[in-house]
Amino acid sequence: MIKLNEITKSFDDFKAVNNLSLKIKKGEIYGLLGPNGAGKSTTINILLGFLRPESGSAKINDICTSTQFDKTRKITGYISENVSLYPYLTGLENLDYFCKINGQKTKKLNLESILIKSGLQESAHNIKIENYSKGMRQKVGIAIALAKNASVYLLDEPASGLDPLASNDLSSLLKKISKEGSTILMASHDIFRIRETCDRIGILKNGQLVNEMKTSEVSTKEIEKIYIDYMQK
Amino acid sequence: MIDIIINEWTKFLRNSVFVYLNVFFIFSLIFVVYLGILQNNSQETNRKIVEDEVREQWDNLEPMNPHSAAHYGSYAFKPMNLLNGLDGGVNDITGNVIKLEGHVQNEILFSEASQSLSISKFGKLKSSILLQIIIPLIIIFLGYSSIINDKKTGVLKLLVVEGLMLRKIIFGKSLSIWLYGLLLLFLTIIIQIFSTSSFESLNRLILIIISYSLYYYILAGLALYFSSIFKNNTTSLSIVMCLWIVWTIFIPKLWGNTVEKVYPLPSRQVFKDNMKEERSKGIDGHNPYDKRRDILKEKFLNQYNVDSLSQLPLNFDGIVMQADEEYGNQIWDKYFGKNYHILEKQKKLFQISGIVNPFSSLQSLSMGFAGTDMMHHLDFLKSAEDYRRYFIKELNDQHAYGGSKTGDWKWTVDSLYFRSVKKYDYKSAKIFDKINYYSIDIICLLLWFVAVNSLIFFINRKKNIL
């Protein structure tokens, strides 16, 4: 479960997040929709414990992310927009390394199955990351998050760089994970992908949550219209 | 931690440019060290040959008066420590031979710098340059961007989310780079170990390894620390390079000049003039009209209850020569002692700069443990002077008590006697007997080690990850 309670974070005079409150239930996928600079990444960084809000509190499974960062990171999986990883290691070696530093001793067979589950073809497993496309790197990033068996996933533009088929696979994968009980917060400005993946959507503008809706109640066109209306205000 | 180190080394080894450059560098290093050993061995062999020749000449001297033999004199040769090839220290400029003779303490001669051709003087590549300048530079270049690059690509953020503490990442990367420095250090040292058999040299090599290891860790830790607190490679590199230049070039020079101002040594001329003036107040062994000689003469006549020197059962000339010698020794002790104390004070004050400059401490320890610093050189000078005193006293005593009468300068001793005079055999001081000279350097390096670890340990993880 993710809970943000009236959090505010400024950088000098700029309020990146302004009095933001949000509650995401266990097993729910929440999409945070907003333009660049709306505060999506700042919100995720607060949840990751890298930024401390000036006011309010951010909790994952009722654990404060600012003060108990060491506990929350153990139960949090993170996928960034640009997964660079180590270019001199193969996809399999990267996954193995991140599992090791996380304290997991995963067998090669299991690692391969996680990579396949993330959508990376077996033939690519032993190729160095420097030869991967952005989409392939993204899949390894997803595999790293999955291997952790986290209860909460924070995704910052996860479908960026993925082809439509891979994006669709990602949506299916995230839905599957949420059904297993994981909570997912996905920040994006891809309205279609958010509509396809999430249970609820929140529109973020100038650090404030200006609207929230259930995806089951609105179409992609309607979300787009609402989004554009807010951005033009 | 071990996973981080393995990962860093994988990065190094999968970079073909890095590998090729290192193969070239390692071969160059081995070549330089090997040449150093060869040169050292050659110098040592030559020294032994010359030393044996000088002794042979002494052993086979034609019969002569002992005092003439004292003027003929002998030589003390400073042995070339095997570790001289590792760090030449002051040996290149101080010289390695002293003429030992009566009435006078000569200066040491034949420094390498004065003997070499100019091209060799300026172009010589010593192991110490590689160890103190080149390897630290490589460590800096490997470390300054390491964390910044991970920060830029987002890998650092992912590593922390996946469970690594920022300080653990910095420690891991520092250790990886430090191990690389150690590898180069060991290659250098191992070649030396192969050519050494003495326990003392092994002790010294171990201490050298520890000193360099500490310094390399300090540098690697600092390079990684700056890499983690800055967001820009240029800033990080500029800061580390500035620090390195200040440590390696500016502080040693500035502090060295300050030390000389605070505890100035008298110039060579003043030193000589003072000695000469004071010496003139003693007995002149070659002046029969000297008043102080008369006092000594009276003393001996009374002691033996005789009226004239010819009645003495000894050669009074030998007694006078030795009295002259002992007076000269006192003056030498006084002035050389003063200089020795000034040099000691200078060294201590210079060592204190280690608080702000670990390079000074490293340099001092490197020379000290290699047995080539000023303290070891002074130890040799003292030993040579002690031998000179034994040597001259032996000859003067032979002149006085060997059976000749006062005024009999034609009385001679033969080679049988000359062979009985002990050979000069200098054994370099044992390092653990001299270790207190280096306590300030050791403490400074350890303080730096603790300080760098503290900087890394207390780094603000949140501020420096994004």
What does this protein structure show overall?
With 233 residues, chain A is an alpha/beta fold. Chain A has a single domain (2-83, 151-232), classed as Rossmann fold, CATH 3.40.50.300. Chain A is 36% helix and 27% strand. Chain A has helices at 40-48, 69-72, 91-101, 108-117, 134-147, 164-179, 191-197, 220-232, and strands at residues 2-11, 14-24, 29-33, 55-60, 63-64, 76-79, 152-156, 183-188, 200-205, 208-214. In chain A, the strands form two sheets. Chain A has a six-stranded mixed sheet with strand order 6-7-8-3-9-10, with helices on both faces. In chain A, strand 4 (55-60) and strand 5 form a beta hairpin. In chain A, helix 3 (91-101) crosses helix 4 (108-117), helix 3 (91-101) runs parallel beside helix 5 (134-147) and helix 4 packs across helix 5. The longest helix of chain A is centred in the C-terminal third of the chain and has 16 residues, at 164-179. Chain A is globular, with a radius of gyration of 17 Å. Chain A starts with a strand and ends with a helix. The model of chain A has no long low-confidence stretch (mean pLDDT 86). Chain B is mainly α. Chain B has one domain (2-457). In chain B, helix 7 (127-143) runs antiparallel to helix 12 (233-262), helix 10 (166-194) packs antiparallel against helix 11 (199-229) and helix 12 (233-262) runs antiparallel to helix 15 (316-352). Chain B contains 20 helices and three strands. Chain B starts with a helix and ends in a 9-residue tail after the last helix. Chain B has helices at 2-13, 16-59, 66-72, 91-94, 112-115, 118-123, 127-143, 146-153, 155-161, 166-194, 199-229, 233-262, 268-279, 291-304, 316-352, 358-370, 374-401, 415-420, 431-434, 439-457; strands at 74-77, 97-101, 104-105. The A-B interface holds A 45, 48-52, 69, 73-74, 76-78, 80, 82-86, 88-89, 93, 97-98, 100-103, 141, 144, 148 and B 3-4, 7, 10-11, 14-15, 153-155, 157-164, 462, 465-466.
